[in-house]
Amino acid sequence: MSTWTLDNVPPQGGKLAVITGANSGLGYETALALAHAGAEVILAARNAAKGRDALARIRARSPHAKVRLELLDLASLASVADFARRLLAEGRPLDLLINNAGVMALPTRQTTADGFEMQLGTNYLGHYALTAQLLPLLCDASAPRVVNLSSLAHQQGRIDFDDLQGEHRYRAWKAYSQSKLAMLMFALELQRRSDAQGWGLMSNAAHPGFARTELIPNGPGAKGVLWNLSKLLQPLMSQSAAAGALPTLYAATSPDAKPSAYYGPNGFYELKGAPAPARIFAKARDTAVAARLWEVSEKLTGVAFQPR
User: Fold this and answer.
1) Average pLDDT per consecutive 10 residues, the chain (308 residues; last block may be shorter)
2) Contacts (Cβ under 8 Å, ≥6 apart) of 95
3) At CA 214, angle to CA 213 and CA 219, rounded to 5?
4) pLDDT on residue 231
5) Can 176 be counted among the known catalytic residues?
6) Which of 69, 186, 196, 282 shows its CA 20 to 30 Å from the CA of 54?
């Protein structure tokens, strides 16, 4: 695994993949690699112009790529439902669902169309609802995989059921870390429920380390302390978006990837390097909290996991 690169992505011909946030950064690089390997890839993006640009760039680099754009705004449960209905109407088995899209450390509290705190709503609740509604298509595939994007920030996260939405006290990094801990817990709980109910999924998670993407400037902003610090540290401690996508691609495609596993870079503090098993902090393995989070998520979104 220490030398696993894009050249190790197995042929993906005949597979259908959905990647959220696929118009830039990690999502774009993941989509490019899967399309180049022969998968039919749906770029799920909320910005039509950026989505079309991503399509053009993928087709320019991989002329035979089978890619298309579908609009999806994870900050709107109505948009998630519309997206899922379109795919369900097509009836194609879904082989890969990569829950990649996210926002980071928004300086002020914002809310989604449904009133959720923006980071929890976009990074986690939108993906929870999307995965639930696409479950029938995943169950129709021969060996379906779901990959959730988490972060090193999950280490500082805590599921604060008393103030889940940051209504009483909003702190940008607390909200971000909570959302990424939720994504990792979701991946592990999804595997437990799949095993218990016979859904046949492989659910795992990945993180990119310190990858150079638009996530930081789109969150704290180019004037923020983190942005200035990241620019200072980038030469030594970061890696490209393409390298940052490798743990996701490993989780999604490698025959050696495991259910309930978590993959990240193998270098210092998991900041950069080749894909390898990443550390899952004990709080992410708390099955009681995970079960409660699942129940709360079902109530908040109004969406339940039903294979048919």
Assistant:
1) 87 98 96 98 97 97 96 98 98 98 94 98 98 98 98 95 97 96 98 98 95 57 51 65 94 98 92 95 97 98 93
2) 15, 16, 17, 39, 141, 142, 143, 144, 145
3) 130
4) 56
5) yes
6) 186
Please give the Cα distance from 201 to 288 (Å, whole number). 21
Give the distance, in angstroms, between the CA of residue 117 and the centroid of all CA atoms in the same chain: 18
In angstroms, rounded to a whole number, what is the distance separating the alpha carbons of residues 17 and 41?
A: 5
Catalytic option among 28, 176, 250, 262: 176
Q: What is the pLDDT of residue 215?
A: 56
pLDDT at position 233 is 59
CA distance 28 to 24: 5
Per-residue pLDDT, 308: 77
* pLDDT at position 217: 44
